[in-house]
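Example 5.3 — NifU family protein
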Amino acid sequence: MEALRQEIERALDERVRPRLRLHGGGVELVCLRGGVLRVRLTGACSSCPSAALTTRQLVEKELCAAVDGLCAVELEQGVGDDLMDEARRLLRARRPG
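Solution (predicted structure tokens):
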């Protein structure tokens, strides 16, 4: 399982992350079960209206082509650390001195 995770990380580094960085985003692994990988988009990509499309047309397409045994990639959505950090920053900035 660790070898598969390393292969996925390598494919992400080579084929996916550089393209997401162009849009101010990134991707991280959440979990892998039975050939289905769950990922979370980060940075600007985490709140993008096209996040599901990006996951399907970029992340899933590239990873399934590069990694044997991987059959699907699903997007984990919700409030991520990046969004929570930004919310905290905004709330602190609004506090009276």
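Remark. The mean pLDDT is 91.
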